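Entry type: protein chain
Record version: 2
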Amino acid sequence: MKIAFIGLGNMGGGMAANLVKAGHEVHAFDLSAEALARAAENGCATYTSVRDAVQGAEAVVSMLPNGKIVESVYTADVIGQAPTSALLLDCSTIDVATARSVADAAAAAGYAMVDAPVSGGIAAANGGTLTFMVGGDDDAFARAEPILSAMGKAVIHAGASGAGQAAKICNNMILGATMIATCEAFALAEKLGLDLQTFYDISSKASGQSWSMTSYCPVPGVGPQSPADNGYQGGFAAALMLKDLKLAMEAAEAAGANVPMGARAEELYEAFAAAGNGGMDFSGIIKSL
C-alpha cells in the first residue's frame, strides 16, 4: 500500500519505519531535514511538501504536535490533494473538538477518516508495540486496523469520531496522577527506612500495583528497565504529559466533570516543566519530591 506519513518526530519516525518493514511504500514528509534523512535511511521516500507526499496515496497517516497544526495540514494540504479514496488516519494527540471538526471536513470532501492517538513512548513506537485508540465509523476502522496493526500491538475501536482522543486523554490523566502517587510512595518509603527494592517487591504484588510501578518504575535500578535507569532521558517527556493533562482539563471543563486529582497532577507537572524539566521523562518528577 502507498502510505503518506506526515510528521517524523520522536514517535512518527519509528512508526513510519515500521510501515516500511511491513512492506508498505511510505512517502514521508517533515519540516526537519534531519528527520527526513533518518526516514530515508529507514526506507521511506521523502518529500519537502505535504502536497507532494500525498499524491496518489492510498492512506495518509499523521503524527503532529497539536490540534492547530493538524487542522492546518489537513484542510490546506491533504483534503483536496490526496485522492478521495485515501483513508486519513491522524495519530496525533489533540483536543476532541478539533478531531471531530477535521473529520467532518474530511467527510464533507468525500474522505473516510479516523482519529487514532497512541499509548506507549518512543521505545514502543520504534518497536511497533503501540496501543491505538481509534475514533471513527465501523467501515473506516476496518480499513484502518491493518495499517495501525503494523505499528502496534493493540488496535481498539473506541467509538465515533473523537472517541479515540477522548480515550487517550482519560488514559493519560490516570497515568499522570498514578505516576505522581507512585513517586510519592517511593519517596516516603525511603524516608521511613524501607529498602526500595523490597518495597517494590511488596507493592508490585499487592494492591498498590500499577503500570507506573511495574512497567515504568521511577526509581533507578528497581523493576524492569525504564527511563529512570537512563537519567530520565527518552520515554515520554514531561512536557508531553503536561500537554495531555491540559487537554484533559479542557475536556473536563467542557463536559462539566469534576477531576480534582487530574487537576492537581496538571499543576505539579506544570511546575516541574517550568523548572526546566520539560524534556525529561515524566517519571523524573520523582526528583521534585
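Comment: The domain at 2-159 is CATH 3.40.50.720 (Rossmann fold).
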